[in-house]
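USER:
Working in pairs, take the chain set out below, taking as long as you need, and write a paragraph about the fold.
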Amino acid sequence: MAPQIKKKTTAPVPKAKSSKKGCLFWLIFLVLILGGAGYYFQAPLNEQLSPYGGLAGIQRMVTEKFSALIGSSEEDEDALRVAAMSPLPKIEPAKPKPKPKPAITAQQGEQLYYVRVGGCMTEDCRLQIIKELEALHLDYLVKDYKRKTVYWELASAQLFTKSQAENKLVDLDRHARDTPPGHMRPVRGKWRISLGNIPDKRRAVQMRSYLAQLYPDVDMKMVLLPKRHSFDMEYVYAGPYSSQFNAQSIADILQGRRFIQEVFLTADP
């Protein structure tokens, strides 16, 4: 009987672990991607990734993860590979800030021009004009002035007692229909009849002549008393413009706009 020959059994070959060369490949691949992105979007990415230490901080984090991956177990290796392969959140490059519009300044020997578009004594008036200019994207200038003007008071030359002054007001109300309402103004214990302050002297003279023609129904000599007043005024200008032609073009555009009071060209606002 022939002897039986035992066959040599071979031990099962253990499953090879994932090659760590693949990890190094992904490390180099990600570093190259981040490096290329930094070349094109270095400033915006660094600004967006500032909480993570910028672009260099992200690269350092990836390197540390893969360094730990090389010495880890197979299960940890798989988990870290999945985390490393996960796409980074989409980062939009920061929009460039608009450059400020350079102010127009006069060069040597050059004259700048402005378009005066109104004069205001109240804030509402000024804001309305500025709103019109901003709607057309026009630059503007606001300057303060203290103005002095003369008003002409149309008043009686004679002083009356209270009862006489009241009778004169009745005569004016009955016969002088084209004049402002009169009122009594006290002067040294007596009363003067006044028709108010009139800014236009020529109109005041015409009104005085009209009252003189009403005699004897209105028996009262009238005089013009100058009244000087000071007041603050704000003038609003569109501009400046580097030529009179440009200023006139803007004046033509502004003509007829709702809150524009005037279109007056000037080189000296």
Summary: Helices lie at 20-48, 54-70, 74-85, 123-135, 162-175, 201-212, 244-254.
